[in-house]
Every structure is written in structure tokens, then in C-alpha cells.
Amino acid sequence: MSSEAGAKSKRNVFFLGATGFLGSQFLVLLARSDLAPTTHIVALVRNVTPDKEKRLKEVYQDLSIIEGDLDSHDIVKEQASNARYVINCASSDNDACVRNILIGLEERQRRDPAHPPLYIHVSGLAIANDNARGEKVEESTIPVYTDIGFSLGQLPPGGPHLNCDTLISVAGSRKDGPLRTIIAYPGWIYGVSEGYRKTTAALRVFIGACKSLQQMGTWGPGHNSFSSIHVKDAANALLMIFKRAVAGNVDVGTGGHYFLASDEPTVPFREIMGVIGDVLYKQKVFANGGSRPLPASVTDAYGELGWVLLGGNHRVKASRMKRLGWTPSESRKISLLESLPTEVQIALREDKTLLA
């Protein structure tokens, strides 16, 4: 694939997740990169206001907004059809949105078969979940996956994110007219973003779910542990992938699976929830600190998917990114547990409903 270096016209990128935690941090780094002068972002944004548009353009100046959401099917198809590049940092589980992106990209490919479009999709490492249901298990029994030689067929069927990831994998690996597809799988993304959204939505979801209990909690006893990655490291990995994709020298399709995880020790879920609970107690938001196993009145609302996402372990090796020269430097500077108190305080400022 030839490089786009020296191209006179700007490359248009249809971007989903511009107001999100990871997506906005990616745009911050893109704005600082040598791609910025030749890259125009078309961002899908819901509930557009002048203030929201102003703040987004402070993050990335060369940006235009298309109002809509992931369920705006015709808009998503049209914008994907108009773009040679689509980056989806929004929901990893909206399969209707993914189908519409792929339909749009396939329309574009039929118009210009010499230049296959690129789709970068952000999934998650919950695909590697062992469904331990929060129980303590022997470390030797936890599967360890590496992204070199990886395929979705290695995973148990029916796991999280596979509804979307399978669609993308098929589109990128078929023999007749494959798209250029890349799926990135970050672990627990933590830290404080420099972008539009400063903290992960997971914090607000967990705090909201536990408000009625006045104490943080876990699915089961919470012995399960997760790989993690600082938001700046995850965004830097995406930028590295995108830059190489523009230059035409990155693995796509069957080789387009990229795990994003640091080498730092995995963190048990009960320790994560315990730190959050202690901060909320000190802030007089919750009546109790620490965490405890959640009752069925909370977990039942999330169904079996909640147990799979939040009750299991995942162990992976980010071999592909390291082969590209990527290092999780921010994750080495500050750990997940060290970062959490600041994140919780910022989340409380970002979302006043958590204090109600």
C-alpha cells in the first residue's frame, strides 16, 4: 500500500467518540502530531451546543461536527462512505452501528477499489475473560493470550464484544474485497485525560450503581483482576497504529488485532472498588468506605454480561504494539490505584448527579 505522504488534499477521518475519555485524548495527541496539518476530523456528536463545539475545537482545531448518535443509521453509513478512514472510540458493543460503518466503507471501496478504506475499532480486553465470577482461582489456570497469531476463534463463544468484533474480523479477512480493519483491545483504561472528557465513564457507572447501597461493591468477592493501561498510553498506541496505517505499513485484517495493556501487575477488582469507596466516604458521598460483594438487587440489573465483564480475569501480552516500538510509559509513572483518588474527585466534579 503506497504512502499518503505528500498528498495535496487532506485526509478525512470519520470519528466516533470525540467527546469520550479515550477518543478525546487521542485527538489531543493527533493535534500534536505531524499528521495534524493534513488530517480533517468529521466527528459524530450528539446534543450539539455552541459550548460543546467550542470545547471540541479547542481539543482539535480542524474538526467539523455531524450531529447524531450511534443509532443514526443513515448518517453513520453516509459518513463512513465519504471517509477513507473511520476510527470508532465510542461504544464497543453497538453492533448496528458497526454494521452501518461497514456498509458505508464497502460502498466506498466499490467506488475506489484501488484504495481500500481503513476501520480502526476500539473493543476491550474483556474478550479474554475467564468468567471466574469474582472467585479466587489459581493463576496457572487463567488463559494468557498474545495478539500475534490471535484470532477470535480462540475465545469461548458468546463473550463480550464479540457481537461487533466478529463482524469486523469477517470484513477484514474475507478473500473477496476485504476492508482494512484493525481492532484495538485496551484493558482497564485509567488516568486523567487532557481531552474533552477527563475520566472514564466506568467510574460514573460504578458509583451510580452503588449509590443506593452507600458503599462500593464487586461482582462476587472481587478476587478477579484486570490488565490496565493509562489513557495516554492507550491513545498513543492508537495514534501509532493510525500513523502506520496512513503510511501503509501496519498489519490489518487477520493480523489486525492489537492488545493495549501495560506490564504492571494486574489489580483485583475489590481493591479498585475499595479505593473508590474510601474516597467517596472521605468526601461524605457514601456512608461507608471500602467495598463488599454486591447483592443480587444490583447485579441482576446487569444480567449475565455483568458477571462476564466484571467478575473475570484477563491476562494478555501486548506483543504487536511492542513490536512497533510502543512502550506504556505513563502506566509506569503512575499506577491504577495511585491514580484513582484523583479520578474520583474529578468525576464528582464532572457529574453532579453522583452527589445527589
Automatic annotation (TrEMBL):
Query: Any transmembrane segments, and where?
Result: 12-31
Extract the coiled-coil ranges from the record.
none
Family annotation (InterPro entries): Epimerase_deHydtase, NAD(P)-bd_dom_sf, NAD(P)-dependent_oxidoreduct
Q: Which residues form the NAD-dependent epimerase/dehydratase domain?
A: 16-91
Alphabetically sorted, this entry's keywords are: Membrane, Transmembrane, Transmembrane helix
Superkingdom assignment: Eukaryota
What is one term from the GO cellular component aspect held by the record?
cytoplasm
The UniProt GO MF terms for this protein read:
aldehyde dehydrogenase (NAD+) activity
A Pfam family per the record: Epimerase
Asked if Ribonucleoprotein is a keyword of the record, the answer is: no
Q: Per its record, how is this protein called by name? A: NAD-dependent epimerase/dehydratase domain-containing protein
* Organism per entry: Agrocybe pediades
